[in-house]
Design brief:
The protein is built from 22 helices and two strands. It has about 450 residues and is mainly α. Helix 8 packs across helix 20 and helix 10 packs across helix 18. The N terminus is likely disordered.
Length: about 450
């Protein structure tokens, strides 16, 4: 294939295609993604000869030698401590009290608690597992079909990477050289829009099928119920309060906010008597396993990204795509399609480190702000988490309930459509993702 521009001609040969084929084959054979990426990077360097093979060893370490990455294990550990101390159930109690005034109240509470958990852990899979164990059985008791209850939790858990603080925004900020704090601020409105779209979708579906009743409280009864819940669970909101205030006020970096949050959560666990020193080995091991999946992918993606850049793949991709059409709205739809499909078949981290450097030049070429591009990319990948065949959240809720993935996916269609509308809004209306940012970023 020949990709050309006025200034340069980029010709890709077997030194590009063979590593790509090897990568796809290894992923299809269930080889760990980090090993698949590493194999493709080494093969590309050997076949092209553009860079010395010693680059791999050097870039493995420099690729993860970033202070911002320290925030990832801290947020993961905070989420794990939150579950083990029982503080996550306080979120559910308050969310249920907040939404019990309307029909479909517990379904709405489930979505809200997903958002609350997302504001602490930054991980969608962790949110799906934690919230699913607390709510799915109760959703079924309330009248929801089990597949729909699973789909509701899977959709709500997508906010794990969409509502700041988010591991995904830390990674894409590192890859593209953008401050994570800036991305967190930009993601706040889009993340809340996604949460609201899921809430509205559930209310509409519940109105059509009458899954859950309720909503018979007077205003005073609702207010009293909410007051009781806040009285017994207000302290759980100290943790997200620390994270939000610290980051958005500029007083703390994401790493510092994560460190303070995990310290406060552990202290609260000991004060409440719900956490013991004997819990630490299992808790740390659980968090280390999650972190151990993310960091090797980032490390092995660094030499691959450098090899692709030297070979001119991002520029070639821009030229190839714009050669088909120069209409920005069509190119945006194409990017969204690529990202949703990628989110269906692969986890967030490899998608970010592989696709962000390739698609970002295309977004820049059509005049899209780099902040807007990042928010659009992460949100589109989030839609992929509840889209078959390999939507990650579908597998998580299926694993904890034993429900068929296909049945869950079928019930998730309304949520996919509502989230897709928000993705389009983010893509075509820059103000959605830049509204809270200083003028320098707009």
């Amino acid at each position: 294939m020949l990709w050309s521009t006025v200034a340069q001609t980029v010709e890709l040969g077997w030194d590009f295609y063979v590593p790509v084929i090897v990568f796809v084959a290894l992923v299809a054979l269930a080889v760990p993604v980090w090993a698949s990426i590493g194999s493709a990077a080494i093969l590309m360097l050997v076949m092209s000869g553009d860079l010395p093979l010693s680059l791999v060893g050097e870039r493995l370490f420099t690729g993860i030698d970033a202070f911002a990455l320290t925030a990832i294990p801290l947020f993961i550990l905070t989420g794990d401590v939150l579950v083990r101390t029982g503080l996550s159930r306080k979120f559910l109690d308050v969310a249920e009290a907040l939404t019990c005034f309307t029909k479909g109240g517990f379904g709405s509470a489930t979505v809200l608690v997903c958002g609350m958990f997302a504001a602490i852990s930054g991980s969608d899979a962790a949110g799906a597992a934690a919230v699913g164990r607390m709510t799915i059985a109760r959703l079924v008791e309330a009248g929801y079909p089990r597949p729909y209850a699973c789909a509701l939790v899977a959709a709500g858990a997508c906010t794990g990477i969409l509502i700041p603080p988010s591991i995904a925004y830390i990674i894409i900020g590192l890859v593209l050289g953008i401050s994570a704090s800036t991305l967190f601020l930009a993601a706040l409105v889009p993340g809340l829009c996604i949460l609201l779209s899921i809430l509205i979708t559930n209310l509409v579906v519940n109105r059509i099928y009458s899954y859950e009743g309720g909503g018979n409280l007077t205003f005073l009864e609702w207010l009293a119920n909410l007051g009781r819940s806040l009285k017994t669970g207000w302290y759980a909101f100290i943790v997200p309060g620390i994270i939000f205030y610290g980051i958005f006020s500029g007083r703390l970096t994401p790493t510092e906010a994560g460190a303070l949050a995990v310290t406060v959560t552990i202290a609260m666990g000991f004060l409440l008597g719900t956490l013991k020193f004997s819990d630490f080995p299992a808790m740390l091991l659980s968090s280390a396993k999650v972190n151990g999946v993310i960091l090797p992918i980032i490390a092995f993606s660094a030499p691959l990204a450098e090899a692709l850049a030297i070979m001119g793949v991002p520029q070639g991709f821009v030229t190839s795509v714009t050669g088909l059409t120069e209409e920005p709205w069509i190119l945006i739809l194409l990017m969204i399609g690529i990202l949703i499909c990628a989110g269906c078949v692969m986890e967030t981290t490899p998608n970010i480190v592989i696709l962000a450097p390739i698609l970002q030049p295309l977004a820049e070429n059509i005049g899209m702000n780099e902040i807007q591009f990042c928010i659009m990319m992460i949100t589109a990948l989030g839609v992929g988490f509840i889209t078959p065949p390999l939507g990650l959240n579908l597998f998580v809720v299926s694993g904890i309930t034993g429900e068929s993935i296909l049945k869950i996916a079928a019930r998730a269609v309304p949520f996919v459509l509502s989230m897709f509308i928000i993705v389009l809004l983010i893509a075509y209306v820059p103000a959605v993702s830049t509204y809270l940012l200083p003028d320098i970023f707009k």
